[in-house]
Amino acid sequence: MSYQPLFLGLGTAVTSTDSNNNRLRGETANLRQGQPVRFVVEGNNMIFGGVIANTVYYIKDIIDDEFFTVSTTLNGDVLELTDGEGFMLVRTIQKELPTESLRKVDSMFKEIYTSGFGQGETGILSVEEDTSPSLGGNLNLNSNEISGPGAINITGNINATVISGDLRGVVAGGLIGPVDEEGIRTGLPTIDGLPFELGSPEAGQIIAWNGPGQKFVLTSLQAASGTDTLNDVLFRGNTSLESINVNGVTTTSLTVTNGIDYSELVNTPNIPADVSDLTDLTDIIPPAQVQSDWNAVSGLGVILNKPTIPSTLLDLGITDGTNGQVLTTNGSGGFTFTTVSGGGGAGLGSRVTATATTGALAINAIGNISISGFKTYALLAMTVEIPAWVRLYTSAAARAADASRLETQDPQPGSGVIAEVITTSNDQTVLFTPATIGFNGDIPATTTVYASVKNKGSGVATIQVTLALVQLEA
Asked: Which CATH number fits domain 4-92: 2.40.30, 2.30.30, 1.10.10, 2.60.40?
């Protein structure tokens, strides 16, 4: 007698494949999800759709009675197909079985192999159809698991080396711990690696950790020497005590109602009634007030965060001049030392220099500067640090109006342009012969000389402009 699978026959005929949904078209009545199959070549049938002949595939999903999908591994992703039509044979893979009479649940195929059935007899198609299956021997999981919802009801013993999960529900027996081959206990039961030795519990006992024994045991809370401890109050709910002992301090005639009255406590601290009861006040009450001293460097008279008082004009950021010069202002907060008398004769001023520097200018970039000069002056010479186009004006408005003029264009008469030079070398000095008369056109007049500087050098640079002037107006 030999064993045959319930699903035999020539196989399932596939007539087309669909690349959009990756599904095969064919009768699915004899197919099961997870079943291994092969696409075979016999007779006039053909292979199409992107599958490979005689390669093991697995039934992935049975969509309906004529469409299904496959995967290359059990429970793997759906195989991607190409479009095709024809006749392709799909056969399930058979298993070799022993010759004795048995039923065997194939966990991979979900097929039931049977033997010894008479004519017209049939077997069950899945384990779910047997409502009361029983084992004829030990069940070997073969490194697999029993998983899924539901419960395992056992009336006997559970023998396990390690139970990695939780034991839930009512345990009618006990936690025995590890035993040897003869069933003799060789150690205490543990939970999360901590041993338990509980024995038979008594009323009022609790589970507590025994430090010396390094295990959990049952213990009772007992009052010591006829007095209740704070633990007795907390855990046994006593409301009337003859005494209470906390950290070695015992109080007597204590009744716990809605709280403990302060007057019934012993060894209470002395609470001062007013400031006269306080001692050692030296550190918190300052001595008599003292007058602050600007020059003090220690003690209570020291003034903290004193400002720095400038001692000379240089401390105010003003550059020192030469002997005989006077301090002048440009009316906008700028101060310089200038010479206003002496030189060629009484009441006449000597020639002076006035300097200003632009910010960093790119090549062909223009920057505006203000030079501190005089209300009216004679312009004798101009020195420019690097090649540049420098223009002098009577006012900021005149400078703005002339900003778009090209170097090759002459300014219009009365436009406010006093003078302009184009230098071609570093530190080049241009003389004005005869001297040019310049003046400040602001109302009221100031000593500002408005200038525009265009960088004609070979790189980014700051440009210093120096004017040689003679004051003509006080």
From this structure: 2.40.30
